[in-house]
Design a protein that fits this description.
By secondary structure, the chain is mainly α. It has 5 helices and no strands.
C-alpha cells in the first residue's frame, strides 16, 4: 500500500511525464462477464479456478472437496470486496475454515482459455477507450496551458 506521500510523488511524476494510468480490478471484470454462469465471485470458486487454469492447466479439480459454508463465506468476503475499504486479513480462514467457500467444479481448460481471452479483450477494449478519452482531456489541458502562458496569465 502506498502512503499519501508516495501517492503525491507518483502523481507529480505522472504529470511531469505525461503518463495516463488506469488500474483494473480484473476479478470484478470477470465477475461482470462470468459471474452469473460461474456462481459469482467467490474465494476458490469457478471464476478463480478458471483464472488459474488459464495460466496453469495442470490444476487437479477432481481433487476438490470440502468447501466451507457459502453463506458465511460470502458474508465475510463481502467485507473485503468493497470499493471504499479493504481490510487486510491475517488469515484467509477468517472467511472460511477451509480457506475457501466457492465451487470450482465444472471449470475446464477450454472454458479457461475462453475466460482468459474474453476477460483480457474486455479489459483491453475499456482501457483503450479510457486512455483515448484521457489523451483528449490532456490535449485540452495542454492547449489551455499554452494559451495561458502566451497571454501572460500565471500558471498555478
Amino acid at each position: 500500500m502506498l502512503t499519501s506521500c508516495q501517492l503525491g510523488r507518483f502523481a507529480e511524476e505522472h504529470r511531469d511525464y505525461g503518463c495516463n494510468v488506469v488500474t483494473v480490478q480484473a476479478c470484478y471484470v470477470a465477475e461482470e462477464l462470468f459471474g452469473q454462469s460461474a456462481g459469482g465471485l467467490t474465494h476458490g470458486g469457478k471464476i478463480e479456478a478458471l483464472a488459474v487454469l488459464a495460466i496453469h492447466p495442470l490444476v487437479h479439480l477432481e481433487r476438490v472437496s470440502g468447501s466451507s459454508d457459502r453463506a458465511k463465506g460470502a458474508h465475510v468476503d463481502h467485507l473485503r470486496r468493497t470499493r471504499t475499504y479493504q481490510p487486510v486479513l491475517s488469515d484467509i480462514r477468517v472467511i472460511a475454515p477451509t480457506g475457501w467457500y466457492g465451487d470450482p467444479s465444472g471449470a475446464t481448460e477450454e472454458e479457461a482459455r475462453d475466460f482468459s481471452e474474453t476477460t483480457a479483450s474486455e479489459i483491453a477494449t475499456h482501457v483503450s477507450a479510457m486512455l483515448s478519452e484521457l489523451r483528449k482531456l490532456n490535449d485540452v489541458l495542454t492547449d489551455e496551458e499554452a494559451t495561458q502562458h502566451d497571454s501572460g496569465i500565471p500558471r498555478e
